[in-house]
Amino acid sequence: MPTITPFLWYDDQAEQAARYYVDLFPGSSIDSVAKTPDGATLVVEFTLLGQPYRAMNGGPGHPHTDAVSFQVDVDTQDELDRVWDALLADGGKPTMCGWLFDRWGVAWQVTPSMMGELMTGSGDPEANARVFQAMMTMQKLDIPALRAAAAGH
């Protein structure tokens, strides 16, 4: 059966990025590193939280955009803070509503695993609107504040 593997293009830091991501997410691994005849890294195969990825050092001219992003669902504010801060480290840039770009320009969404429930699960359109409005004011999402908005506080 065919499979789909996200394939990321880096100028020349594919292995560095893959190792960073693997260190960030427990249970992740570098699976293989293909080298060119001169010993430079060409393609890195790695697994993050059970999902396989490939990254290539393909040279400049193909920057990442937020048209493709990776969403990380977390259960607690502490985990959200840890992942958010790590992805922003050394030159990342926050945007809005839980989105950021890491130092390599890869777009990530760091979201509470209960976000769907907060946005739609109550069946109360006013509560859903409050959660949406609260989220629209945030860069890094604040789980207690989102829950408070859902409750009408």
Structural features, described:
It comes from Curtobacterium citreum. This is VOC family protein. Residues 3-111 form the PhnB-like domain. Pfam families: 3-dmu-9_3-mt. With 153 residues, this protein is an alpha/beta fold. It has two domains: 1-63, 2,3-Dihydroxybiphenyl 1,2-Dioxygenase, domain 1; 64-153, Roll (2,3-Dihydroxybiphenyl 1,2-Dioxygenase, domain 1), CATH 3.10.180.10. 33% of the residues lie in helices and 28% in strands. The protein is built from five helices and eight strands, in the order E-H-E-E-E-E-H-E-E-E-H-H-H. The chain has helices at residues 14-24, 77-88, 115-121, 125-136, 143-151, and strands at 7-10, 29-35, 41-48, 51-57, 69-74, 93-94, 99-101, 107-112. The protein has a four-stranded mixed sheet with strand order 1-4-3-2. Strands 5-8-7-6 form a four-stranded mixed sheet, covered by helices on one side. Helix 3 (115-121) packs across helix 4 and helix 4 runs antiparallel to helix 5. The N and C termini lie far apart (50 Å).
Descriptive terms for the model:
153 residues, alpha/beta, 2,3-Dihydroxybiphenyl 1,2-Dioxygenase, domain 1, 4-stranded mixed β-sheet, elongated, 3_dmu_93_MTrfase, PhnB-like, VOC family protein, Glyas_Bleomycin-R_OHBP_Dase
The radius of gyration is 18 Å
The name of the CATH topology of the largest domain is 2,3-Dihydroxybiphenyl 1,2-Dioxygenase, domain 1
Task: Point out poorly predicted stretches.
Answer: none
Portion of residues in beta strands equals 25-35%
Pfam family, one: 3-dmu-9_3-mt
Organism: Curtobacterium citreum
Domain PhnB-like: 3-111
InterPro entries: 3_dmu_93_MTrfase, Glyas_Bleomycin-R_OHBP_Dase, PhnB-like
